[in-house]
Write a structure and sequence with these properties.
It is built from 7 helices and 9 strands; from the N terminus they run αβαβαββββαβαβαβα. With 197 residues, the protein is α/β, with parallel strands linked by helices. It is globular, with a radius of gyration of 15 Å. The two termini are 20 Å apart.
Length: 197
């Protein structure tokens, strides 16, 4: 689909870019991190399912290929613009009204910790319509209800087109409950996020 002016304007007005994914999302997240400009003028928060107690090189791989500052979320860390944050394994990542992150050790959601739903719902409470949220490939339903809450709060909500996703269940679950205002092909997602003029 051709991107209309409405989606482009709402993207430009966003302060937060939320990216959620699980199985099959690593490649697109890696490409997105590489493509985001250093002067994006937004905070980027990535929640990707990670195996418990499994050492991950996500931060190193993403960090070495990102033009923006990239770091793993730490408890009580201030939220800074033009920074990419990655949710750590074994914690749920939340944002607080005072403009900082907090980490939570409660039970997994959809067998996952970090949970996309937990972070998405937390961001919806604080940033409301100032968010662009994209739900990518994954093999369970995590992220769907969080994306719905974001949409209800006025955020721009996008699901990767299930035909483009390596694992269609996650974006399809969001589409099924009308959580995604837009369903975009992968090429359109890149076109939108690279539009910073």
């Amino acid at each position: 689909m051709a991107l209309d002016d409405k989606i482009k304007l709402r993207w430009k007005e966003s302060r937060i870019l939320l990216l959620g994914g699980s199985a099959g999302s690593f490649k697109i997240l890696f490409r997105l991190v590489k493509s985001l400009p250093v002067n994006l003028n937004k905070t980027v928060i990535i929640v990707i399912h990670r195996k418990k107690n499994f050492f991950s090189e996500i931060e190193r791989l993403f960090g070495e290929n990102s033009r923006m500052l990239l770091r793993e979320i730490s408890d009580k860390e201030p939220i800074v613009n033009n920074t990419i944050y990655i949710a750590p394994a074994n914690y749920h990542s939340l944002v607080e009204n005072e403009g900082y992150f907090s980490l939570d050790v409660s039970e997994p959601v959809w067998y996952s910790k970090p949970s996309i739903d937990v972070t998405f719902e937390s961001v919806a409470d604080v940033y409301k319509e100032k968010v662009t949220a994209i739900l990518l490939s994954g093999a369970n339903q995590d992220g769907a209800t969080g994306l719905l809450k974001l949409r209800q709060e006025g955020a721009l909500t996008i699901a990767q087109h299930p035909e483009d996703a390596e694992m269609a269940e996650m974006p399809q679950s969001a589409i099924d409950i009308n959580a995604a205002e837009y369903i975009l092909r992968t090429t359109d997602i890149f076109e939108l996020l690279e539009d910073t003029n």
